[in-house]
Amino acid sequence: MERIILASKSPRRKQLLEWAEIPFDVMVKDTDEMYPASLSIDQVPVYIARNKALAVKEELSHDRLILAADTVVVLNGKVIGKPVSKENAIAILSELSGQTHEVITGVVLMRDDAEIAFADITEVEFHKLSLQQIEFYVNKYKPYDKAGAYAIQEWIGVVGIKRVKGDFYNVMGLPVSRVMKAIMEFEN
């Protein structure tokens, strides 16, 4: 398998690609994560991922397969981003507590003018969490770089998740099996 370019600084995406034994190099260019209000929610992370891929593509001097992704958390039709403070993280997790939300990861694979883009949706249901549990998690794990203020593979996921419907790894930030199939399409 050829080495791909991962257009993401997410340690979780790096870890997932390593687990899948997909060879990659990381190349990141900061991009604006704003999106048009007219987009459907499932297209928001695809739009942001495409912008990440295009920004990296501009920097490449030769043809390489680029993988970019973006993950959003959606509760009751509203996109919940990354928390901006401790108080915001506590508020977000309090809102997710006892509820079912969606985690949507948009993926874009791009080489030259060819592109494969998709969104993968996973439903996640939290148990009712106490304020003490939420504060413990936020204080210890500081989830400020995570959409929805949590990582499923950390303490809160282990003790707080009641049910997952869909790809578990999508919640970590990359639906690896779908990505692998898309990479194979490029190679064939």
UniProtKB/TrEMBL annotation:
It catalyses: dTTP + H2O = dTMP + diphosphate + H(+); UTP + H2O = UMP + diphosphate + H(+). The record marks R12, T71, Q153 as: Important for substrate specificity. It holds the Pfam family Maf. It is found in: Cytoplasm. One of its GO terms (biological process) is nucleotide metabolic process. Its EC number is 3.6.1.9. The keyword Transport does not apply. GO terms for cellular component: cytoplasm. Belongs to the Maf family. YhdE subfamily. Nucleoside triphosphate pyrophosphatase that hydrolyzes dTTP and UTP. May have a dual role in cell division arrest and in preventing the incorporation of modified nucleotides into cellular nucleic acids. This is dTTP/UTP pyrophosphatase. It comes from Lacibacter cauensis.
